[in-house]
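The authors assume throughout that readers already know how a fold can be written as discrete tokens. What matters is that the chain and its backbone geometry are given together, residue for residue. A single example would do more here than another paragraph of explanation. For illustration, here is how one protein appears when written out as sequence plus structure tokens.
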Amino acid sequence: MKSSKILLAATLLTFAAAGNALAFHDGGVAYCDGCHTMHNSSGNAAMAKNGKAPLSGNAYLLQGSDQSSTCLNCHSTTAAKAGGYHVMTTDAAVNGTVPSNYTPGGDFAWVKETYNYTVRGTNTTDLGERHGHNINAADFGISADTTLATAPGGTYPAANLACSSCHDPHGKYRIVDATGTIQRPNVAGTGYTGATDVAKSLPISGSGSYGAMPTATEAVGVYRLLAGQGYLPDSVSGVAGLTPFAADPPFAVAPSTYNRAETSTDTRVAYGTGMSEWCSNCHTSIHNSTASYDSGAALIHPASSDAKLGSTILANYNAYVASGDFSGTVATAYTSMVPFEEGTKDRTALTTHAVIDGSQTAGADTNSNVMCLSCHRAHASGWDSMTRWNNKAEFLTLAGAYPGVGLTGDPGAGQYTMGKTQAEIQATFYDRPATKYATYQRSLCNKCHAKD
């Protein structure tokens, strides 16, 4: 191979490893043909085959039957090919092939996994739709939530929930300076509908999800192409009671490799600030950053940028290792099973902390706060309410091992497995060995509350 080709190959691998170059989105709007088809055809074959006439395409000229199916055309794969930018395991099956994408947000396959189990002689069903955000993705067998018609604490309709409800598919939101200023250039004829909308901004040169900084002439995209102030998808435009987003995307930085088993080291996403405020765009009444948490008046679990951990919770988090073990130190206290926000917009510091090699294990400090993702995964998990661990059982491990169907003979132990195999349960812990925890480990709520 010629030296020039070797150099090119090395350069391409370097860019790919960096995670913010040579990607489909590159921090903003991708090439149009990647998601849309103007003539409903590819290679002279009709693309819309779901009972539609040959010349009848999909809404918005999408390549999938709907917004989420179009996203999952690229962001889903089989378990054998899991990893990278994939967020759904297409061949996952109850008590069979395990959802195998370990992104920080979770695997959407869990919303299709319904389990039946017995607790003290009573048959119980664990519905898949309780495991996460039930995006409408007809081509992948995911449909609207049948129980919750609207977002808990809000009015966003479940019938319209899509990937594009949270992520701006055209990626117009961008970070334009070192202080983290977010802007969206908006066509003047449509009016400015967000506080940070401008008529002219910097072009996006790449992803901001991995710590890249803007320059004087180029912006970077916001974290995960999340939508910000003034955003309202066309699919819900005009729906009564819905208003455009009030909060901008959070400040966060992910390591460039983030879809991986956490067998020996954590995947540390450095969450800076603003995650709960952003979630409140849809879950409005669940979050209240002005609530008087300390007085107990709010009567809800705090989750906001001003919900600092406080001296007691801070001490608990940094000392807690496992049930009955409070010998930990702040230097090694961090766990991605119970992450926190650092209370900063400093992208340089966040980038330093976003690693997978175990070099950044420091726990919380007085700037840290609890957020929605401290307890929940953003997409889906194996547990009810998309929590990171099972909150409906006393124990997460039994006799030093994860529980599992077929391993636990006690008919009253169904609450520990909720119908899952040991492999499925270990997958919800991103393949951490059970020995990371106590032989009879109780809820990870105790990482902050230390009641065990």
